[in-house]
Amino acid sequence: MNRKSELEGSIDPEAKVRPIRTITDLARVAGVSPGTVSRALAGKSLVNTKTRERIQALAREHGFQPNQMASKLRRQKTGVIGVVIPLGHDREQQVSDSFFMTLLGHLADELTEKGYDIMLRRVIPDRDEDWLDRFIGSGMIDGVIVIGQSNQFARIEEVADGYLPMVVWGNHQEGQRHCVVGADNRLGGRLAAERLIAAGATRLAFFGDTAPFEFAARYAGACDIANSMGATITAVSTHLSPAQTAQELSRFLAEHHGEIDGVFAASDTIAFTCLQELRKLGIAVPDQIKIVGFDDLPIAEQTLPALTTIRQDIQAGAHGLVDLLLRRLQGEETESLVLPPKLVVRGTA
User: Fold this and answer.
1) Where is the HTH lacI-type domain (predicted)?
2) Which residue ranges make up each domain of the chain?
3) For the residues 212-226, what does the mean pLDDT come to?
4) 123-127, Cβ contacts within 8 angstroms, sequence gap of 24 or more
5) Contact assessment for residue 159 and residue 112, using Cβ atoms and an 8 Å cutoff
6) How far is residue 101 from each of residues 120, 132, 147, 162, measured CA to CA in Å?
7) How high is the pLDDT of residue 4?
C-alpha cells in the first residue's frame, strides 16, 4: 500500500467534505484525541513515531497549520489580554451581572498595573464551537483569561493541550490539564449547609443550575453535610435571570408549601432575588426561611436583612489569574490556585 492509500484508509470518510479548521477537527479525522494531535504537531516524543508522522502527514494533506497566530504572538506582542465569558449553560446571563462586574473590575486594575489592555468577549458557544480557537488565533491578544468553565470544560481542555498562556476562573478537578483559579467550591457548599442546619433549618433547597462545574461542586458539598446530619436537600434548577429565579421560587413554594426552611443559593445574585421574592410573598427571613448565598459581593451586606454568604476572595482571585497568566507568557507551566472559602454570618441565617 502506498503512503497516500495508507493515510486515506485511516481517516473519517466524511473528512473530504468537512473543512479542517481546528485541532479537534484533525483529531476526528485521525481517530485520536485532540491532545495527541497537539503533541504530534509539536513533535513531542510522547507520541510514537508512526502516529506522529501519520498525523503530521494528514495536517499537510489538509493544509492545516495550527497556532499560526499563536506562533506570531510569541514573536510579536500586542500588549492586550483577552478576557472571554462563555455562556454555554445560560445564554441569558449578562456581563452586567454583579459577579462579572466585580471580577472584571479587579482584573482591569491588575492588568493595567502590569501595562496591559483588555479585550472582552461574551460568547454563546453553541453558536460558534470554535469560539476559543478563534480568539486565541486572532492575532489580537497575547494571552487569554476565561471566566467560568460553563459547560465548556472539554473545549477548554483541548485548547490547553496546545496553548500555554491561558488561565481559567472556575472549579479545579484532579487530573485536569487547564490551569484554573477559583474557590474550593465543594468546601464552600459544606460551609453553607452547616450554617443553615446550625441556624435550625433541616429541610433545605439548593437554588441554581447544577450543570456548571462550580455550582455542581457547591451542591455536592451541601449534600455531603445534609446527608451526614440528617437534613434533606432538594435541587431547584434555575438560571441567573432574576425573573426566572423568582418564578421558580414561587412555583416551588406553591408545590411544596411548608416543606423547606432553608435556601442555599448558588450565588449571591440568586440569593438577592430569593430574598426579594420571599418578602413579596410575606415569608419572613430568617424566621420562616433562612438563606445563605455564595460570593460575598459588595451588596451582600446592604440587603435587608444583610446576606449570610460564603465568601470567595474575588480580588485575590483576580490577582492570581493575572500572576499565573504572566508567568505562562514567560513559558512557565503553572499549577492551579484553589482559594479557601469563608463563611460570613449576617442576618439571613
Assistant:
1) 21-75
2) 3-66, 70-183+315-340, 185-311
3) 95
4) 123/84, 123/85, 123/86, 123/87, 124/87, 124/88, 124/91, 125/86, 125/87, 125/88, 125/150, 125/151, 125/152, 125/155, 126/88, 126/91
5) no
6) 12, 21, 11, 30
7) 40
Determine the length of the chain: 349
Q: Which residue has the cell 483529531?
A: 27
What distance in Å separates the CA atoms of residue 195 and residue 107, rounded to the nearest whole number?
Answer: 31
> Which CATH architecture group holds 3-66?
Orthogonal Bundle (1.10)
Same fold: 70-183+315-340 with 185-311: yes
Give the chain's radius of gyration (CA, Å): 23
Query: How far is it, in rounded angstroms, from Cα 275 to Cα 348?
Result: 9
pLDDT digits (tens, 9 = 90+) for 238-253: 876 788 888 889 999 9
Q: What is the pLDDT of residues 71-113, one digit of tens each?
A: 544 456 889 999 999 886 665 666 778 899 999 999 999 999 9
| Number of other CB atoms surrounding residue 53 within 10 Å | 13
Can you give the pTM of this predicted structure? 0.77
CATH architecture observed for domain 70-183+315-340: 3-Layer(aba) Sandwich (3.40)
CA distances from 38 to 31, 136, 144, 168, 336 (A): 13, 15, 19, 20, 21
Distances from the Cα of 346 to the Cαs of 30, 280, 343, 349, in angstroms? 57, 21, 10, 7
DSSP 173: -
Joined together, the cell numbers standing for residue 57 give 502527514
Distance of CA 66 to the CA centre of its chain: 25
pLDDT of amino acid 161: 86
Concatenated DSSP letters of 279-322: HHTT--TTTT-EEEEEE--GGGGGSSSPPEEEE--HHHHHHHHH
Report the 10 Å Cβ neighbour count for 267.
24
149: its cell numbers: 468553565
- Per CATH, the number for 185-311 is 3.40.50.2300
Collapsing DSSP to helix, strand or coil, 55 comes out as helix
pLDDT digits (tens, 9 = 90+) for 116-144: 999 999 988 777 778 888 888 888 999 99
Give the distance between the most distant pair of CA atoms in the chain.
79
